[in-house]
Amino acid sequence: MSDNLRHFLEGSQILSLFLVIGAGYAFGRIAIFGFSLGIGAVLFAGLALGAFAPHAAPPALVGTIGLLMFLYGIGVQYGDQFFKGLAGVGRKLNTLALFGVLAGLAVAVGGGMLIDISPGTAVGVFAGSMTSTAALQAALEAAGNRDPAIGYSVSYPFGVVGPMLCLYLMNRIVKPVVPAPPPPVIVSEITIDHPHLIGETATKLAALLPADVHLMAIRRQHQNFLPMPDVILVEGDAIMIAGAEAAVAAVSEALGHVDPGRIAKDRRDFNAREFFVSDASMIGVPLDMLQLPAAFSMHIAFIRRGDAIVLPSPHTTLEYGDRVTALAPSTRLNEVRKLFGDSITATAEFSYVSLGAGMVLGVLLGLVPIPLPGIGSFSLGLAGGPVVVALILGRIGRTGRISWRLPLSANLVMRNFGLTIFLAAVGLASGAPFVTQIALNGVPLLLLGFATVLTVVLTVLSVGWLVLRLPFDELLGIAAGATGNPAILMFANKLVPSDRPSVGYAMIFPSMTIVKVIAVQVMLRLF
Q1: pTM of the model
Q2: N or C: less crowded end of the chain, CB within 10 Å?
Q3: Cβ-defined contacts of 103-108 (< 8 Å, 24+)
Q4: Would you tell me how many other CB atoms lie within 10 Å of the CB of residue 11?
Q5: Domain check: are 332 and 472 in the same one?
Q6: Where is the RCK C-terminal domain (predicted)?
Q7: Res 469: pLDDT
Q8: Where are the alpha helices (DSSP H) in 86-220?
């Protein structure tokens, strides 16, 4: 019976691949003491099935394509934050992460020598401890065998559990005071009754408002109109503003008194609607450079991007899938709809021309040999090349009519599906050698993986907290970015009511991914 099942699975590789994906995700949802493997369980499901049916693995190209999808999506999303992180304080944060990652690599390679495992297995332990699929792919290419995948699969659980445990314990020990997250945006209507504002223009009024308060509309007597620059305020005018609650309250007291409903209840002259951004000509262009039709009256109140609300500025650029709340004359709302596109499918659509061109450039860059004095040369490979190109394109945003960015929802689906395929394929191909290696060096490999990840996380946390005196929430993001797994970032976001872990992760993750890709190749060349 088992032989028949084995032959069936080995003869249906696509079936085996999706069986691993489905079973892995089901297993990953099981929580023990609040912890679950998540997407990492796909790797272990692949190892189990691969050990039972060694020839059920799909061609290596399948896993490679999945990895490229994952890495390209990460690079395009975080390109802007990455390059900002290379300047100013970002250099200090990246240096801290680099110090921790290299310390972990030294532990993995040095410990591998002590327990007498192959260099490929040792760098695989490092890649698994960092949960870095990009480093694993680079190690597989450099080693020319499956040894890195074995080390990766053994140490991967510690790469997920270890950082979470460290962050949790540090949070309990230091009991940090984290600033509250920014309050949600609210809309308020104010009747102006302070004489010093009478006779001033709407431009002057907007300049007097705090940076987090936005002027949306003006009402005079029985008519509403948009805050055009040359409008002069008169006694009894009402304004509509949007911003943080505390800032709006302060503005209300300084300008006049709150008069709710005075503008919003009258929608004869203009109205507010939410539109999806789906027209390609609107993507990546600063708002002050949008090519609007002559005499086109429209005002963007705020932008919803994912779960965040963005108050627009002249330099704000729109992305596919943004939901824009725009104010315009009621008779011209259809024109505004056509302007933005207003197609909900934009949340899942993107240009395959830009995706194809970006992938081609990334693969080509990965093939370029880079000389390293005293060692030879290395290449970014299929792991590093697409990451670097995607980071650059994510920073550029747009070239002519081509938008390089992807809608957030489409990006998430693409890279999560790509990572799932890669983990399933690697697990299927590594199942049989994994069982053999565990039988020979199981306990030492487990201890080595545990020591490697603890070295990285504890180095970042201790130096960042005790020496550099970094804010706790920012430090969590740096630790998550150094180790790399998005699940660690999600755990950090639950620990503190702040968005700074996400910002820190975005600055650190891409650069440390490139460091890991290069480091494993250098180690294999040296040893």
Answers
A1: 0.69
A2: N
A3: 103/455, 103/456, 103/459, 104/129, 104/130, 104/452, 104/453, 104/455, 104/456, 104/459, 105/519, 105/523, 107/448, 107/451, 107/452, 107/455, 108/448, 108/452
A4: 12
A5: no
A6: 175-257, 258-342
A7: 87
A8: 89-114, 119-129, 133-143, 147-174, 202-208
